[in-house]
Amino acid sequence: MDTIPSVPMKIKLKRDNKEKEALETILLKKKIKEKEIIKKKLKKIRADFYIDEHKKKNQILLKEKKKARFQKKFFVPSESKIFFVIRIRGINGLPPQTKKILQLLRLGQINNGIFLKINSSTVQMLKKNRTFR
What we know:
Layout: H1 9-70, E1 82-86, H2 96-104, E2 113-117, H3 120-128
Antiparallel strand pairs: 1-2
C-alpha cells in the first residue's frame, strides 16, 4: 500500500494564513462597499434637501413679485449677504491706509481672495480701497 506523503506543518500553516487573510480582505471590502453606499445615500439626501430649499425660495420670490404687481407696487428682492474680494495689484505706490486695510482683510498676495459678510465696517473699508483696483 502506497501512503500519501503528508504536507509539512510549515506549508499547512502558510495555507491556513493565506485563507484567513483572503477571508478578511473580502469582509473588509464588503464593509467598505456598504459604507460607500451609505455615503452616497446621504449625499443624495443632502442634495435633495438643498434642491427643495432652492425651489421654495424661488416660489416665495415669485409669490412676492405677484403680490407686488397685484397691489401695483414695486418688489425689490433682497441683496446678497456676502462679498467675494480679490486682490489684483501689488503694493507699489499705495498709501499706508490702503496697505493696512488689505492687511486686515487678509489679502497679503496678488490673486488672493476672501469671502466677507456685508456689514457697515466692511463696506466702508472697501469704499476706501475703491481707488485701489
